[in-house]
Amino acid sequence: MTTTAIQQSAVIGKEQLLKHWQGHRNLTRRVIEAFPEKELFEFSVAGMRPFSDLAIEMLSIGGPALKAIAERAATPYTEEGIVPKTKEDLLKLWDAETATINTYFDQIPEEDFSETFNLFGQYEFPIYQNILYFIDNEIHHRGQGYVYLRALNIQPPFFWER
């Protein structure tokens, strides 16, 4: 693990960043809720993965990555063991992961956010950039969920209501 630091100016603080991320997580949770059970696990457009698979990817990134950062442990990316069978199972996993994110986010000192971390043994970026990647990845996949919901004639939640 490299611990090179870069010069960074604060635009928002640590708690504001977590609140922003949790707003996105809350919105993504509402997207999961909007899906009918069967379509959550089976429906896709143009060969893309079903939204349940996209949610599993999101679950395998945020909490596990923050845990690795907080513990300074290089752990490989894996989706192993995340196998919800129902929408209720997926929502329970989502809520548990939100608690995990809160726990490990609090363990990372704000002054460490500019230190680099080798995420999943693949990506060497400052911690704050890794966290922004987690948020960007979620927004990207939630956008796919919006396309799916609209294709199913279901009104998705308003994106600005986080």
TrEMBL record:
A divalent metal cation binds at H141. It comes from the Bacteria. Keywords: Metal-binding. It holds the Pfam family DinB. GO terms for molecular function: metal ion binding. Gene3D superfamilies: dinb family like domain. Belongs to the DinB family. This is Uncharacterized damage-inducible protein DinB (Forms a four-helix bundle). The lineage of its organism: Bacteria, Pseudomonadati, Bacteroidota, Chitinophagia, Chitinophagales.
